[in-house]
Amino acid sequence: MQVLYINQSLLFIQKVSNDTPAVQTEFDTCRHMPEVLIFYLGLQFINLFLGIPANIMVLWLLHKSKKDSSTSDIFILHLAVLDTFFCLIPPLELANLMYLTTSSTWYVLRFFYGVKDSSPLFMSCICLDRYMAVLQPIIFTELKDRRHRAFCAAAVWLITLTYAAAKCVGSLPNFDKVFTVMILVAFAFMVFCNISILWALRQSGPGRDEMHPVKKRAFKMVLIILAIIVFNYLPPVALFPFKEYFSPDVFHCYIHYIAFGFMDISSSIQPVLYLSKGNLHYTPLCKCKTSCCIGAAEMEVST
After folding, report:
1. What does pTM read for this prediction?
2. Cα separation of 93 and 101, whole Å?
3. CB burial string 168-198: b at 16+ within 10 A, e below
């Protein structure tokens, strides 16, 4: 009887262990399509090794050129601070995705993800500042005092930290729709501002067949910025609104990491772009006779 009892106990334990699924890592969950996860981690480590030094260099240049700084520099500075902190997470992210099964590390990662999700808000502020410089130069000149820009930066940080804290909780119903709406609105606004700037710069002055050199340089710069915005933010804009049309498995293991991979690599691309144009100097405004040209000169300095 005792042997029978022991055997029954062993059978019961074995049945319970078979019925209880083992806790899997994120990589185990997406083992059937690991290429996307590896691609995502590769982009994140580019941020670690390229994004951190590039953003620190941007911060150093902004500090060094305080006296000659442009109106957009306050937003560029805050964006560089945000991206520097975000670029620190790849080692923890690698450990969490590949090896750890604990849920505690997800709270830290979700907070940093929330901070990065809000980076398009700072980009929108930069685009708005350049839009005003080119299309509304008179109002731009009157509002050149930076106090309202500091207020805007503080408001963006308040929104960012509130959103990141809410995302950190991870249990709010339909919270992912907040990001979808935010990225759609920010992307549409950034594209509108840059296309409007390109359209204004493309118009030649009366009696002129060629674009002014200042306007030409600004046009090229805005075109590059627009291309980068589309490259970084179009994947989440194009894919996230259609989440319900994908199976949960495909969206979680494939769409999610592709979209955020392209968005997150902006932490390296944007500072590298700023550094590549770091040798630009102030263009004398007296050489530009049109208001659009004056705005282009102002905008060129801020890139």
Report:
1. 0.83
2. 12
3. beeeeeeeeeebbebbeebbebbbebbebbb
Cα 276 to Cα 156: distance, rounded to the nearest angstrom: 27
Q: Which residue has the tokens 């300095």?
A: 301
pLDDT tens column, 112-152: 999 999 999 999 999 999 999 889 888 888 877 668 899 99
Q: Please return the burial class of 166, using the count of CB atoms within 10 Å of its CB with bins 0-12, 13-18 and 19+.
A: middle
Residue 104, both tokens: 């505690």
CA pseudo-torsion sign 112, 115, 120, 123? negative
Six-digit token pair at 68? Answer: 């000659």
Residues 95 and 49: their CA atoms lie apart, in Å, by 17
How far apart are alpha carbons 198 and 277 in whole angstroms? 18
Cα separation, 299 vs 72, whole angstroms: 9
* 95, amino acid identity: A
Among the listed residues 194, 34, 225, 198, the one whose alpha carbon sits nearest the alpha carbon of residue 129 = 194
Q: Which residues contact 300 (CB under 8 A, 6 or more apart)?
A: 214, 217, 218, 221, 280, 283
Question: Which domains are delineated in the chain?
Answer: 34-204+214-302 (1.20.1070.10)
Please choose, from the candidates 43, 61, 36, 29, the residue with its C-alpha nearest in 3D space to the C-alpha of residue 116: 43
